[in-house]
Amino acid sequence: MLAEIQGRTPTRGMRMKEETKRWMRQAGGDLRTAKYLFGGKLYKEASFFCQQSAEKALKAVLLERTGEIMKIHDLVRLGKELSLDEEMLDDCERLSIVYVESRYPGVGDQEYTAKETGEDMRLAETMLKWAEKNLS
Question: Which of 100, 128, 131, 136 makes the best surface tag, with the fewest CB within 10 Å?
Answer without folding.
Answer: 136
